[in-house]
Amino acid sequence: MDKFFSNAERAEVLVQALPYIKRYNGKIVVVKYGGNAMINEQLKHQVMEDITLLWLIGVKVVLVHGGGPEISETMQRLGKKTEFVDGLRVTDRETVDIVQMVLAGKINKTLVNLLEMKGGRAMGISGMDGRLIEARMRDERLGYVGEITKVNIKPVTDLLEKGYIPVISTLGCDAQGNTYNINGDTAAACVAGALGAERLIMLSDIPGLLRDKDDPATLIPELTIQEAAKLRNEGVISGGMIPKVECCVDAIRAGVHKVIIMDGRVPHSILMEILTDEGAGTMVMGGVRPEKHEI
Prior knowledge:
Layout: H1 7-24, E1 28-33, H2 41-56, E2 60-65, H3 68-77, E3 84-85, E4 88-89, H4 93-117, E5 122-126, E6 133-137, E7 146-151, H5 154-161, E8 165-169, E9 171-173, E10 179-181, H6 184-195, E11 199-204, E12 222-224, H7 225-233, H8 241-254, E13 258-263, H9 269-275, E14 282-285
Helix pairs in contact: 3-4, 6-8
């Protein structure tokens, strides 16, 4: 670091970040973290550093995580076949037990430990704790895959008020005591909406929304919900991007100010989005699209 940046240059970086620090101080930012963006250990540490830094400068960060690849790996080790229908994991009773073990156990506590190691104060909970996420069976063909019916946000606001970074695993429950596997993007959108978050950042393994899915240079940097509907009709938003963008739109309509889809494989992409004018990925918003990211 000393080889490339003088003390004066470091100071200038901090000064340039000051308007953004003021902008987000005391505001809620929800980060959805999961899938292939979690696999690389070095990047995982950098994501936790970003979250801890935001927390240290007064941003109220909520981390919502999935863990599909690790669930699949654990199932394979246990001799359990992974089956998908319409992109969703078929989840029988044995599978939902594995999902609970991996998400609420190993992954959740690993992320909490990493945040604490980086200097943050984190508390891990699942969507079952305090009945944070209530759900029902989405489709009998899928088994215990949940559709969210209610979000009881108080466990999260209590942790934020006590100065913790809530780390939420995407499980849900119903009045009969059943456990459900909840789609991570859907859970993050519902939690962010219930919190009225300033930002929902959805870390993925793609740069954002592309006009040509095979050409990263065709990234769409900003998008209103009206434009999203138009692009879906045109076929630009297709395949796996349809449910992801739908979650973004749902979050905006629920009260989230802006949603960003970005590449979690890019080092410190969260800080690039929050603390610079350039931002990263695709920003989804309501209303009229501005010329550039607002400070």
